[in-house]
Sequence to fold (338 residues):
Amino acid sequence: MDKQHYLERLVLKLETHVPLPSAEREKLLELPLTLRRLEANHDIVREGELTKQCCLVAEGLVCRYKIVGDGARQILSLHLPGDIPDIHSLLIERMDHSLGTLTPAVVGLIPHEAVRALTRASYRISEAFWRETLIEAAIYREWMVGIGRRAAPSRIAHLFCEFITKMTAIGLSDGVTCDLPLTQPEIADALGLSTVHMNKKLREIREAKLIRIRANRLTVLDWKGLCSLAEFDPDYLHLQPGAAKIESD
Amino acid sequence: MPSYFFHTRDGQKLEIDEEGTELPDDQTARNAAKELLSALNREKLPNGDHMSLSVIVQNAEGAEIYVVNLRLDVASAGAPAAPKREGTR
Fold:
C-alpha cells in the first residue's frame, strides 16, 4: 500500500466526525509521511521522551499505555488505522505516557513542522485535529466511568461495542463482525481487570450468546443485548450520521 | 506455560472453570486467586449482608493446590447510635 492510501485513511477518520472541504482534503493528502513497519509490542515513543514527529496509524493496532510500580500495565486507549494518537505532541512535546504497537503495524511518521504549517494555513484542519482530541477526551471519560463504576461483564461488553463501532466507522467492519487482534491479557490491561477475572466474565458473555470470538475475529450475535449489558450509547463517539450505523436487531 | 483452573463457589453454587488460564507458575496462580476473589467480592457486595465466596485453584494435573475463602457478615451492632460530636460537620 502506498502513502496516499494511508493518508486517505487519515482523511476518512477525520471525516467520520465532520466533512472536510475538498481543498483541505487535498492538503492533508500532501503531508510528508515516512513509513515504518513495526513488530507487535514495539514502543513507538516512550514516556518521558521528547518527540518532533506525529505518528499516523496506517495498519494494525496501537495503544497508549502506562506501567505502574509493580510492573502492571494500564492500556489507556486503542488506536485504529487513520488515528494520530500523539497529535497532542505538536503542543506538548514531552510524552507523559508511552505509545506502542499491540499487533504488527505500519505507522507513518509526520514531522511536527509539516503538521504545524498545515494547521496554521487552514483553520478547518486545525479545528478537525482539535475536535479529534476532544472526542478522545470523551472516550477517556467513558473509559473512566467503566473502570471506576461498571462491573466487569459490562466493562468487557462496552469495549466490544466501542471497538466494532469505531471499526465500522472507518470501513473495517460491516457492523456485525471485525478483526479483534487483542489477546485476553491485553483486554484485561485495557479494562483494569486481572486476566483470570477477565477470562471468567468473557466466558459468561460468550455463553449468553451475545458475541463469538474465533481466530481473532469478533462477531456480534445480539447487538441489542450486548449494548444493554454494556450500557453503550455511541453518542460520546460523535460520529457523523451514517458513519457507523449498526443494525439493532 | 501450565494451565490453571479457577473454580468458584458462591454460597452453595459451584462454578467449574473448564477453560483455564495459562500462568507461569503456582505462585502467580495463588496471587491470581486472591485477586479474583477480591474482584468477585466487589462485584457481589450489593447483594445482601451475608456472603461466602471461595476460589479453588486446580493445576493442569487435576490437583487442587489452593483454596481461598472469603466470608462477609454484616450485622447491626445493637448499640444506640453514637452521639453527635461537637464541632464536626
